[in-house]
Amino acid sequence: MSGQTWDAQRYAENGRFVADLAMEVVGLLAPKSGERILDLGCGDGALTDRMKESGAEMIGCDRSPQMLAAAEARGVRTVQADMTALPFAGEFDAVFSNAALHWTRSQREVLAGVFRALRPDGRFVAEMGGLGNIAAIRTALQAVLRPYGVDAEEHAASFFPSKDEYTALLEGAGFRVDRMALIPRPTRLPGGMEDWLRTFRNGVLQDLPDDARETVVREVVALLRPVLCDSAGVWWADYVRLRFKAVRG
Ligand code: BEZ
């Protein structure tokens, strides 16, 4: 994975929409009272906390200590773990994940850990970036960072699969796939593109010298303005979601 680090305050200002837009995948999960559910990549726990209203016992899991501290401050029970090395065995009725799975290319390790964590017939319900996700933003970063000797795609090390690709991965891990959809979802950015870049691409930006960082941000924003900023000055990210439900066989 990239050297991405998470600043809970910056995320609260610029990333709240991630939890706010998750109601459809939460609906697909349909958490029930008495169930024990793992929220994989829970971040600051805003969504985990909301799902507690269902009466399910929610456990948040993330590898970022900063984000886990923010989740704990909301009263969310947490476990620190890397999603490629989950420490659970047969203890969850469901594993849920929103906007986290795409942060690693080690998907076989993730899926093996999720499979192990579930009880027989347990469900895995998730939404992640899918094929074509933030294509314009990624292309602009590639173009602007190349003269600095940086391959933005390699640096980000993200994984945005097609439906077929992820179905094969889930089936290969022993899951039965019940639902799989690829959904374009242009997403309004509360703080504009500059704040998005500083929140979600800080891994690549922080490796640059200060003056280069400011130039890169300015050039990426200028390249994207004609395609992702509307005539009212509102910025939209070209998100594409892969949403699925799979059952442990
Ligand atoms: C996403 O949710 O698709 C995403 C967010 C930040 C960076 C990359 C992808």
UniProtKB/TrEMBL annotation:
CDD domains (alphabetical): AdoMet_MTases
InterPro entries, per the entry: Methyltransf_11 (IPR013216), SAM-dependent_MTases_sf (IPR029063)
Gene3D superfamilies, per database record: Vaccinia Virus protein VP39
Keyword annotations: Methyltransferase, Transferase
Keyword Transferase: yes
One GO MF term: methyltransferase activity
Domain Methyltransferase type: 38-125
GO BP annotations, alphabetical order: methylation
Protein name from the UniProt record: Class I SAM-dependent methyltransferase
Lineage: Bacteria, Pseudomonadati, Acidobacteriota, Terriglobia, Terriglobales
